[in-house]
Design brief:
Helix content: 40-55%
Number of strands: 15
Strand content: 5-15%
Mean pLDDT: 88
Structural class: alpha+beta
Shape: elongated
């Protein structure tokens, strides 16, 4: 990529002289019958130099921009009057100075008489596919950098080298080719052919090469004829096109009867008469056009589908396009199995053989050289159709044991307990198959199998891939003679280190492995009718997400013992324990508070020396004990810092991305309508609240944590969005802005009108908690639901102390722990509240 140092602006006469010289050189070659690839590439190089100089004059030597050649110019097939197609790409948002600089590039090119077509984009534009612009997508196949920021160019090339984009380009190419052939009646036997557009013409040659580049480059060695014949056809067609441009002095591509004599003469065809020379010329044209058409027909028919970088899917499954290169890129091997799942295909036998022959060359760390590969492994483990089959393939070829040597050590391991029916490794994979089946929607007409309720838990999980990881590792301790649970935990920690697993994910997986026998023991061997048994088990689990994951892990683990082990009765016992424990966690958890003991505070302070244990103890005192299980020590430390220097009407806010969602943490002092106002602000910005926790300490300190999605991409598309959001939140909480009017405008939009899917239910319970009245609401998950419901509670004098927010598909399940004048609600107050809430929901 050229990028000369910036100097004085190049004069127009100098540019004109250089362009004329390049054009004269091309014209002379054309008149000699040599206007093919080499001559056109030389002319394209001369135009490159002009564009590069003008670009550098306009934007400087180190711009956050790059200019690229597209289409035929990108292929260096630039005839005298071809379009000079350019892409000006900027690393950030376009500004007025950028527009001025672009004028400094484009106007001189237009003044030179060049037919310049240009596209202007920001790098972030390529995060999404322009499906409505197929010509542009196709032009990107031949994108070639001319000048500018090399790093920006590399990032752009990485953005467009995606399987989904290549699949769209393939579809666009197929459609555009059919549209282009239609006016020619889909035949290359044209007496006055268009050497560019007609079947068998230059665009078809480009299409053959594009399909090979997008799918499998080896297609060019597997055509209906020697690849050299395709090159010969291209050279012939380019020579003819160069003559047509030179003679017509414009972008003329039709080889008319009148031009056929001229072309035949310049290309020195034999014959005493013009007619004889024309017949020889057209004979060669039809021979070349027929060869190109056969090439295109074949590659369209046999080209595999692009499914990933250097990966395609054909009749034999997913395979590497360049097996030799793949041998030295073990970090890419997992991508083949991921692509196979997404394509609903197997990994090809040839690819498995390559991996099996070379897997021993690599250690576990070689497969996860960076954070992106570590995340890709977890993404692969998400339960969905095909996971068990691909993991089995991965295991059979030896890859799984290289990625996880801890798992490799239990390959074909036999434990003679007269209970398990399978080897330890197959038992593990079968357990994962059970999860896969729970995650797979049943086909229409499939009779119920009694596990639909467990499947609903799978749909609720925020990170189901952690459950699969836990299952992969839950029995690795059986490789030796030690007590296998503790040994599995020990070995798993080595895996966590290699994956650089975040602390919160690490704690979840370790909990599941350490307790993977607990739930079956309680469900099948304890009196679960005894409330104390459920209470103790709930204390072990702590929060609903872990309960759901442990329930599913237990179900899968028991199911994989043998076909007969998980009887309907055992499944029923397991479900009953889940329900009883869930009720204990969601209805009674508010009664168990963190006491004045500083043990929890000291544990956090040990990890965060800047936080005195006394300050931590004051913050934690009186919060529900469940808080310590909901948040890790780093999060608790952040909350303590947010609570510093808090005063009436002040709001301390943390807003951070969390995976595909966002997490909002608000710390302030309690006041009426507080929870309602915060949830109303979220809804007024179009945020979809997924889950949340609202807690109030005895000192009046409020901690609200919401997780939500930004479906309208407000934060992504607006540079000052975070500041605007926090500003509105502070104004609403302090009472300076009324959120009702903001929310009303959004609610009245037809975009948010939805048919009712869920019959609303309001349940009031004064017995499940010693301190609170529990209000459980099940309703359609509509915009502003939390705001309206909590506002009704505040209007009736209720204080909202604790809230659990959950969303299951289109259904919202919200549990409020409320008081009135510091006590539980009276029966009359309960009736009045339920009536008001039911009326609100039915009118919704």
């Amino acid at each position: 990529m050229s990028n000369p140092a910036r100097g004085p602006a190049t004069s127009q006469p100098s540019l004109r002289a250089r362009l004329d010289a390049a054009r004269d050189t091309l014209a002379a070659a054309t008149l000699r019958g040599e206007g093919g690839r080499a001559a056109l590439a030389a002319y394209a190089g001369a135009v490159d130099d002009l564009v590069s100089e003008l670009f550098t004059d306009a934007l400087g030597a180190t711009p956050q921009a790059v200019v690229l050649a597209l289409g035929g110019y990108g292929r260096r097939h630039l005839c005298l009057h071809s379009d000079v197609d350019l892409l000006a790409l900027f690393g950030g948002p376009l500004s007025a100075s950028h527009e001025s600089a672009l004028a400094g590039l484009l106007h001189p090119l237009w003044d030179l008489g060049l037919a310049v077509g240009h596209q202007v984009r920001e790098l972030d534009d390529f995060a999404r596919i322009e499906t409505d612009n197929p010509e542009f997508l196709l032009a990107l196949v031949d994108a070639r950098p001319i000048a500018g920021d090399r790093d920006l160019c590399d990032r752009f090339m990485a953005r467009v080298d995606r399987a989904d984009l290549r699949a769209h380009v393939m579809a666009a190419l197929e459609a555009l080719t059919d549209e282009r052939h239609a006016p020619f009646n889909n035949t290359f036997y044209q007496l006055e052919p268009d050497v560019k557009e007609a079947p068998g013409g230059l665009r078809d040659v480009a299409a053959v090469r594009a399909i090979a580049r997008l799918t499998d480059p080896s297609l060019l060695q597997q055509g209906p004829s020697d690849a050299a014949r395709l090159d010969d056809a291209e050279e012939f067609l380019l020579q003819v096109r160069s003559i047509l441009h030179l003679d017509a002095r414009r972008n003329q591509n039709v080889l008319s009867h009148a031009m056929q004599e001229r072309v035949a003469a310049l290309l020195a065809y034999p014959g005493a008469q013009p007619q004889a020379r024309v017949e020889h010329l057209m004979g060669d044209y039809f021979r070349h056009a027929r060869g190109v058409a056969r090439w295109l027909e074949r590659v369209r028919r046999v080209a595999p589908a692009p499914v990933g970088p250097q990966l395609v899917s054909g009749s034999d499954g997913v395979r590497f396009t360049d097996p030799a290169a793949a041998l030295n890129q073990p970090e890419r091997w997992i991508a083949a199995f991921q692509a196979a799942i997404e394509a609903g295909a197997a990994v090809s036998d040839d690819t498995l053989a390559v991996i099996q022959q070379h897997a021993d060359r690599y250690d576990a760390g070689d497969f996860f050289p960076d954070a992106a590969r570590q995340s890709a492994w977890l993404e692969f483990l998400k339960p969905r159709p095909g996971l068990y089959a691909r993991l089995s393939q991965m295991h059979d070829c030896g890859l799984l044991g290289r990625i996880l040597p801890e798992f490799g050590a239990i390959t074909c391991r036999v434990v003679r307990d007269f209970y398990h029916k399978y080897t330890v490794d197959e038992h593990t994979l079968l357990a994962i198959r059970t999860l896969e089946r729970l995650a797979t929607p049943p086909s229409p007409g499939t009779p119920p199998n009694g596990r639909e309720r467990f499947a609903s838990l799978m749909q609720d999980l925020e990170r189901p891939e952690l459950l699969v990881l836990a299952l992969l590792l839950h029995d690795v301790g059986k490789s030796g003679d030690e007590e296998h649970v503790a040994e599995s935990v020990r070995l798993a920690n080595g895996v966590f280190d290699r994956l650089a697993l975040p602390s919160d994910a690490r704690e979840v997986v370790e909990f599941l492995i350490a307790n993977h026998l607990q739930m079956s023991t309680v469900a099948f061997r304890r009196d679960t009718e005894d409330p104390e048994t459920v209470r103790r088990f709930a204390a072990v689990v702590g929060v609903e997400e872990r309960l759901k994951m442990l329930t599913l892990l237990t179900l899968a683990d028991v199911d994989a013992v043998s076909l007969e082990t998980l009887t309907p009765w055992k499944a029923e016992l397991l479900w009953r324990l889940y329900v009883d424990t869930y009720n204990q966690l969601t209805l009674g958890y508010g009664d168990e508070l963190i006491d004045q003991s500083q043990s929890a505070a000291q544990a956090v302070a040990a990890r965060h020396p800047d936080l005195p244990a006394a300050e931590l103890a004051r913050f934690l005192e009186g919060l529900p004990r469940r808080y310590l299980q909901l948040f890790d020590q780093a999060a608790i430390a952040r909350h303590v810092r947010l609570a510093r220097d808090i005063h009436p009407d002040t709001v301390h806010v943390s807003l951070e991305p969390k995976g595909s969602a966002w997490e909002l943490t608000v710390v302030t002092l309690d006041k009426p309508f507080l929870f309602s106002n915060i949830s109303g602000v979220l809804s007024s910005f179009g945020m979809d609240i997924l889950r949340g926790h609202a807690m109030t300490s005895p000192h009046g300190l409020v901690l609200d944590v919401f997780q939500f999605t930004d479906r309208e991409r407000f934060f992504e598309l607006n540079p000052g969005a975070r500041d605007e959001f926090v500003g509105v939140l502070e104004q609403v909480v302090s009472g300076r802005v009324d959120v009702t009017s903001r929310l009303r405008r959004r609610q009245e939009s037809p975009v948010h009108a939805r048919p009712r899917r869920v019959t609303p239910v309001v349940y009031c319970d004064n017995h499940a908690s010693q301190r609170y009245t529990i209000v459980e609401i099940v309703a359609d998950d509509r915009l502003g639901l939390l705001y309206r419901v909590s506002r009704v509670m505040s209007q009736q004098g209720c204080g909202v102390d604790l809230v659990l927010i959950a969303t299951e598909g289109h259904k919202a399940i919200d549990v409020f722990h409320i008081t009135q004048a510091g006590a539980k609600l009276s029966p009359a107050a309960q009736d009045a509240l339920v009536a008001s809430l039911q009326r609100l929901l039915e009118e919704d």
